[in-house]
Amino acid sequence: MGSGSTFSVIGADVTIKGDVVATADLHIDGTIDGDIKCAALVQGETSSISGAVTAESARLSGKVTGSITARELVILRSARIEGDVHYDALTIEQGAQVDGRFAPNARQPVKAVPTASIEAAE
Known about the structure:
By secondary structure, the protein is mainly beta. It is 3% helix and 52% strand.
């Protein structure tokens, strides 16, 4: 953390009903019933999020029901995710459960990759 950064913790005993928007990095151990937008998100194993998650980086280890959009996304083995996942860089630990579709972010145009036909390889 730089000298100008802040870090907020939502404890395991806290339940928030409504959207959470933070310029700070968030560590969530509690329950969020709403969308989350923040710079960096760290989700504890006991945490539950029902809503869309948007962050520059996210490290998820609890339950998420909703779409996830992050540039750098790490899904730990204890995570249980129901929703579509959009990412630039993705890491998934063995044992994580994700019920949804994965798609890279469409922020930058994807360069065309030349495709070789099977016949050309023979």
